[in-house]
């Protein structure tokens, strides 16, 4: 099976983006998030930013441990939710095609 980009025009391909983030991340200041939003909007990118309550930075990495007070820790629920969001995003972009 191969994957092909849906609507594979150069414009459509360049203007898709996705991002997941936490509401308050000690590693990524809110000002940096705001700058990201401005940059994506200025480029007219179809993007999304999702904030999850509870987790801190590295919430999808089991090796980050479970002590949120360090600023990096795994969070199972946010990990599962972010993976579902990423799969939805990828489903919007790619379409499975039979291998030739």
From TrEMBL:
Domain of life: Bacteria
MF (Gene Ontology): hydrolase activity
Keywords assigned: Hydrolase
Organism: Prosthecobacter dejongeii
Protein name (database record): Dienelactone hydrolase
InterPro entries with a match to the protein in the record: AB_hydrolase_fold, Dienelactn_hydro
Keyword Transmembrane helix included in the entry's annotation: no
Record bears the keyword Hydrolase: yes
Domain Dienelactone hydrolase: 24-93
Pfam annotation, one family: DLH
UniProt region (Disordered), positions on chain: 1-23
UniProt lineage: Bacteria, Pseudomonadati, Verrucomicrobiota, Verrucomicrobiia, Verrucomicrobiales
């Amino acid at each position: 099976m191969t994957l092909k980009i849906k609507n594979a025009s150069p414009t459509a391909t360049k203007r898709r983006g996705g991002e997941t983030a936490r509401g308050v991340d000690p590693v990524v200041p809110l000002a940096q998030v705001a700058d990201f939003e401005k940059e994506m909007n200025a480029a007219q990118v179809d993007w999304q930013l999702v904030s999850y309550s509870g987790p801190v930075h590295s919430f999808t990495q089991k090796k980050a441990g479970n002590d949120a007070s360090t600023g990096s820790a795994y969070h199972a629920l946010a990990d599962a939710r972010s993976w579902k969001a990423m799969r939805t995003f990828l489903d919007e972009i790619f379409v499975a095609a039979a291998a030739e």
